[in-house]
Fold this protein.
Amino acid sequence: EVQLVESGGGLVQPGRSMKLSCAASGFTFNNYDMAWVCQAPKKGLEWVATISYDGSSTYYRDSVKGRFTISRDNAKSTLYLQMDSLRSEDTATYYCARIRTTVATDYFDYWGQGVMVTVSS
Amino acid sequence: DIQMTQSPSSLPASLGERVTISCRASQGISNNLNWYQQKPDGTIKPLIYYTSNLQSGVPSRFSGSGSGTDYSLTISSLEPEDFAMYYCQQDASFPYTFGAGTKLELK
């Protein structure tokens, strides 16, 4: 059974840092691209970042470029999101998602339960 | 960025009813359109990928169609577990973008 379990969230002050982790199990982690998707309170889903299966390629939404870093440790089957210079608008539930890649498309085929990050003084 | 406009934002419906949710992209996305369901506890699962492909384990009452900029998700006969939020998402280009969501509610 595929499982994605996020951790590391909580309350953090503006300008500070936080690192999220996502422990993966039930599949061969290093065969899949992975992503973080967030959801602000009472709002919709927003893609944050994607990392390739081997970590060689990363992609970010503009609002987090230069502040967030997605990474992975394939030996530990763990995905990370380092979030620096946090802003109040980063307050959201952050979901870890596995990406299924087909010939024609990529989509998020498994999601974690999410971890809440609150940026506030 | 490709903007995804989803409608309606709220959809009251009855058990057994057939419903359709629409999603329009701000530019052509070549069928790179996926649909997700989010339950009130936050659980998210894929329903349809690449416009019309049913994700494994998803009931056949769910179907997707469309092309170019216009896409839709149809539920042929609503079951109690279908009342949830639905989101479309394009993967034609980065940044991947989602529609604002449709809340399917019991009438």
Q: What stands out?
A: Chain B touches chain A through 24 residues (CB under 8 Å).
